[in-house]
Amino acid sequence: MSQKQLRWRFNSVPVLNDLYFIFLAIASILFIVIVAYSMLQQKTIVKQSKGDKSDPLFASESEQTKSRRAPTATIKKSKKANKSNSVKSANDPPRIQQPYISDISQKEPISGQVGLAKLDSNSSIVTELVARIKNTEPIEQQDLLVLFRNHDFKFHRKVHIYGLNQLTDLWRDIELELPSARFVELGVSIQLADRDGAMSKKELHDFEQMALDYSDTFDAPFEFSMDVDDALKQAQTLDEIGRRYDSLAVLNVVPRSKSGFRMADIESCARDLMLSTDSNGIFVKTKGQKHNLSILYRLACTDGTGHFGTSDDAVVIVHDLVIYMNVPATHQPDLVFRDMVKDANDLATWLDGKVVDRNNKVMTQRSYTVLAQQISDISFSMQNDGLTAGDVVSKKLF
Question: 326: which of 104, 164, 361, 382 is 20 to 30 A away, CA to CA?
Fold first, then answer.
């Protein structure tokens, strides 16, 4: 080996040592970063698990983590509207004798109430009566549902059954779990009031019988989340509050000519307004993600016979477009109404129609201002009674 080669080899040793230490330092830093990230992820998962594990049955509305089916709005003027002009659910297309007109359809005035029940805004609003069943042995989902089906048909309001999953140690809606799932604790809940009124004594009796049936069948004691007499009083309180604010903001778009609107043209305009269609053919304006949608307003078509909804026949003639919003169940209803007015006027322009009032006269700016003020008054008065338009409680009641 030549002297030159020896000199190069000798000089290169320090360089290699430096590179080795550099690579070692980089590897150490990466290792520390990876370990720190893993610990952070694990901590986040544990935190989420603790949140899911929280008991949804006795928690306040803001703390509940149980899954719920979103309630559907009801199309009617008030809780005691004439039966011919109302329906029970948006899943049952309404048939009305007269077309809806531009108005705030409301049971009672906003002001001048004497002795009206009021909710405490500083406390959680209880909307359900819960029967907690503490079974000593795990029970399979299919056994629980068999017994549940023997009772749930007796109720016209929402009744749910929840369980503490033995495997995951999380509270879950039993109806959504696998048949093989086993539960170590149960909770059955009934909503105290909704748009059909307050829970009756008969419903309370039926609910008690269901809890007793579970207790006897599985040899498990149960307890209610509140005294049954207090539950009836709370149901009446919620119903009184509901009656005060049960209202719809309605706009009507009618054709200028007697030939009416073509269904194909309406569907095209609805697409331009980013409206989807529900199972009954009623157009819906929504906001939010797929699994967390909020309904802003609905657009229904009438064909002169009182039928709501669209038709498979694209050439069907429509004589009235009814745009309506469930005021207390809508978040920021004053802003939604502003968008509703804009969309109604766009529809009128595109379809050669007009937005009319209750006397079939074209809506004016003053008419819109009056309706907007009524909506604002409803939202403000709800806040004074401890409610917020469009929140979880309001969507349950309305």
Answer: 361
